[in-house]
Design goal:
With 144 residues, the chain is mainly beta. The protein has a single domain, classed as Deoxyuridine triphosphatase (dUTPase) (Deoxyuridine 5'-Triphosphate Nucleotidohydrolase, Chain A). It has a five-stranded antiparallel sheet with strand order 2-3-11-6-8, with no helix packed on it. A four-stranded antiparallel sheet has the order 1-5-9-7. A hairpin with a 7-residue loop joins strand 2 and strand 3. The longest helix has 7 residues. The termini are far apart. The relative contact order is 0.25.
Length: 144
């Protein structure tokens, strides 16, 4: 799939880390490093702008290595970039650790997954069909 991209960063285009990777690595595009204190959140620019085809979205997801090793994750994850958005792709990072974390220019901060979506239309009814689960919510199936 071809996707139009404008790269105003001083880094290479987003890339897949391996042949079978689902997500493209996005990099921070910073004039100077940003210190992220514990429980602090910040909007990190990437310097890229994209034009997705109709019927597709870009999902912004955390990088597992940053999450487990440093406690850094993406808020509102997965974040959605809609097909009609033309602004800069920016990423909301949060520091869930107890130590400061410095985001460096060019650092891989998240993954972007391109995915199709379906638009729904509502059919208002008086009742819903019954299922075995019914209204069972969080934890209703127990531990095993």
């Amino acid at each position: 799939m071809q996707i139009k991209i404008v790269n105003k960063s001083h880094h290479k285009l987003p890339q897949y880390a391996t042949e079978l990777s689902a997500g493209l690595d996005l990099r921070a595009n910073l004039d100077k490093p940003i210190k992220l204190k514990p429980m602090e959140r910040v909007l990190i620019p990437t310097g890229i702008f994209i034009s997705l085809p109709q019927g597709y979205e870009a999902q912004i997801r955390p990088r597992s290595g940053l999450a487990i090793k440093k406690g850094i994750t993406v808020l509102n994850s997965p974040g959605t970039i809609d097909a009609d958005y033309r602004g800069e792709v920016c990423v909301i990072l949060v520091n869930l650790s107890q130590e400061d974390f410095v985001v460096e220019d060019g650092e891989r901060i998240c993954q972007m997954v391109i995915a199709p979506y379906v638009r729904a239309s509502w059919q208002e009814v008086e009742t819903l069909d019954q299922t075995e689960r019914g209204e069972g919510g969080f934890g209703h199936t127990g531990i095993k």
